[in-house]
Specification:
- 2 copies of one chain form a homodimer.
- By secondary structure, the first copy, chain A, is α/β, with parallel strands linked by helices.
- Chain A folds into 3 domains: 3-73 and 102-177 and 279-354, FAD/NAD(P)-binding domain (3-Layer(bba) Sandwich); 179-276; 364-435, no CATH class.
- The first copy, chain A, contains 16 helices and 19 strands.
- In chain A, strands 6-5-14-15-16-13-17 form a 7-stranded mixed β-sheet.
- In chain A, helix 11 (307-324) runs antiparallel to helix 12 (329-359).
- The longest helix of chain A has 31 residues, at 329-359.
- Chain A is globular and about 60 Å long.
- The A-B interface holds A 168, 171-179, 232, 276, 278 and B 168, 171-179, 232, 276, 278.
């Protein structure tokens, strides 16, 4: 039975262990946190809710957890835009009522780890912080002096992966970590006086304000978690919000709707951390006996809600590669790395573009006119014209294809808006160009 | 007297120490190698000769070393192109006989370190390998257990800088290290039977072969050092050159001229290392009490011969910044970092483009036709139309300007080649657009 070490028992590590558990592998998951079934997970400064969509659901279906998770998930059918005027407008994510799901990171992680207890060939080693690794011998060393060695090593330990770190010490490993100028801070919105959600829970709430924005996702306990995305430095920035009066004034000016329902936002603002937003891109993902996967290989900004979804899809695709090379794990690693990277490069790009869209374009007239045209095109030819957002969120078409198709659509929408093309001509041209 | 630690006593660290030695600083240079005045420097796998041009000369002039170095430098007035047919053609670097200079890395480094012995306020600590640093307290720790602490710390310790490494452990430090698919290997060409250079020593010899190339620079002892740039993997690659017969056949096919004068190339090929080619881009360069400079901040590929020249120019610009803020070292660091980065980004881009030009375009007909037109333009208006190569190599115009001007020139040359513009019109348009 080949032995595999999975570094990290977070979302991607635990999902991968679940998927591989059914193959003939002996799996050791090395996790730095405490055993949550003893003491619970408590993580400050990590995003506490996530938007699960089709790619993520597929992985949950693969391991039969989708029903159980559904009872902990809240469907969001579109964006509720909170304008500066306090008007709210609703933009559905699809014309056929498809939803993304607000789920709690902790709940999902616990479900995944709990399911691993059913497998005798899987051991999760808690409180083992990896301090070094040898990617050529598949060996890791932990802070408390343990050494684990296996036939293969998979680094699923996040954007600041210790395994990624070991890759950077080898020659010809290209590595980029980039931060954007914005940071984020989480704030809470309690239930209303009747114990109910203060807003429609079946929407992702957005306050787009050009250079910055606030969003809010519903939680099962009738609260919302709001996240402010704001420049670290500059005219309107975290740096400028240096005392309670300034924070209060800033929120009253830009987020009046929010201020009305978030009684503790000022004190929370100073209690909660301001976190940075970075991305990781590197190559190769596979070297020696070791593979990087999930955020360790391709961390992205959160604005398309695809970080976890892309990581879960990695697990499905890696399983396919292993099934195609049952006798050669390393060939599977190589095929996975080569075929998957162009897709994660594409979602990295899309996630940055969606930030512009969310904070800015959702109130832009030209953008809204194009969205209106797109809705008509979708009604006319629903099987042909599938918007980019749907391709990314509600399908498993490779991300790189979604990027290409979206760019083609954008050009055609510009043509329709400039009245150079009729709606039918746009559909016809799209059909022809897509098949090229 | 403020105390400054300079990490690294290589070319840039030693140059900076020389320049700052005349200010009222106490300077400690921390160098991992042995004291060369006891045992000499011996470095395997580093490029042993370099092309010094105007930016580098300015720094040498600043410290009065230019005359002494000139006696160790060989002027190269242009490129000697060795065609596959064994013909050699000469492309001058300028119309007025300007040269770049082949110098030995070791000779130059020794001259710089020797000059430091004249200053009582400078100490070079040899055999001190830095293993960690605190960029907020300006403190470094060495492998042998020493700690050095100062008012400010400057990391001039190269592309794999230990100080850069300390920056990567702080939040919001964007860092990219990228490798190109090519590697390089050095090979030697001895003097001929009469003890003279085998080829014209006053040229940089190039064998451009599309995906790969060989270059050769003259040394003072009448030898040449040749460097093969070749893909690591692929059809024609280091990987494929796995035995003596293959190496011999490859060189005979593509570099017959070289084979004739390099009796030991086959054995050297297997004795000498194959080195990778990477670049570093990062931000910010200044944080806490620490500044990155030279390759530690902006390593580039060697194809424009500007790595050392850019690092030396860094030292001159940092001195200017320190002179403008005599009471605030850190303000000077900040101004240096903000103003210099766009220029080193530009030379990084230009260096990659010059690789394409050197290995490929120097034999391309369209490229040669444009070069011919450019020579005519330079003759017509020598004070107006200064080619990009000259701006980079023979001037101190900021690299970002050289990049912009070159792109403008390239467009105008295309227009002249397509007969949309006369030569005079190109000059006039260039004048007008440059002033915009």
């Amino acid at each position: 039975m080949p032995k595999i070490i999975i570094a990290g028992g977070g979302l991607v590590g635990a999902m991968l262990a679940n998927i591989l558990a059914e193959s003939s592998f002996e799996i050791h998951v090395i996790e730095k946190r405490h055993n949550p079934f003893v003491s619970g997970f408590q993580e400050k400064g990590r995003s506490i809710n996530l938007a699960l969509s089709t790619r993520g659901w597929h992985a949950l279906q693969r391991i039969g957890l989708e029903r159980e998770l559904l009872s902990h998930a809240i469907p969001m059918y579109g964006r509720a835009i909170h304008h500066l005027s306090n008007e709210i407008s609703f933009q559905p994510y699809s014309i056929d009522n498809q939803a993304i799901y607000s789920v709690s990171r902790n709940t999902l992680n616990l479900l995944l780890l709990k399911r691993l207890q059913n497998f005798s060939n899987v051991v999760v080693h808690y409180q083992k912080k990896i301090v070094s690794a040898d990617i050529f011998t598949a060996e890791v060393h932990t802070e408390c002096g343990d050494t684990f060695k296996a036939d293969a090593l998979i680094g699923a330990d996040g954007a600041f992966s210790s395994i990624q770190q070991a890759f950077t010490k080898t020659d010809r490993f290209s590595f980029c970590r980039k931060y954007i100028s914005h940071g984020y801070k989480e704030l809470s919105i309690p239930p209303d006086s009747r114990g109910d959600f203060v807003w429609n829970p079946n929407a992702l709430h957005i306050f787009p304000r050009k250079r910055f924005m606030l969003i809010a996702l519903p939680n099962c306990n009738k609260t919302f978690t709001a996240t402010l995305f704001l420049d670290f430095e500059g005219e309107e920035s975290f740096e400028k919000l240096s005392d309670e009066a300034k924070v209060s004034a800033f929120f009253k000016t830009y987020f009046e709707d929010f201020v009305r329902v978030a009684p503790n936002f000022v004190s929370e603002f100073f209690e909660n951390p301001t976190s940075s937003l970075g991305m990781v891109s590197c190559e190769p993902w596979y070297r020696g006996k070791t593979l990087l996967i999930g955020d360790a290989a391709h961390a992205i900004v959160p604005f398309y809600g695809q970080g976890m979804n892309a990581g879960f899809e990695d697990c499905l695709i890696l399983e396919e590669c292993l099934q195609k090379s049952p006798c050669d794990i390393f060939k599977a690693f190589q095929v996975f790395a080569d075929s998957r990277k162009p897709d994660t490069d594409a979602i990295a790009e899309l996630a940055m573009r969606n930030f512009i869209e969310m904070r800015d374009l959702v109130t832009d007239e030209r953008f809204l006119a194009k969205k209106q045209i797109e809705r008509e095109l979708v009604k006319m030819a629903p099987d042909v014209w599938i918007p980019q957002y749907s391709l990314v969120t509600f399908s498993r078409i490779p991300y790189r294809k979604a990027l290409e198709i979206g760019e083609l659509q954008d050009k055609l929408l510009d043509e329709v808006l400039s009245q150079n093309l009729s709606l039918w001509q746009a559909v016809e041209q799209f059909k022809n160009l897509r098949t090229c």
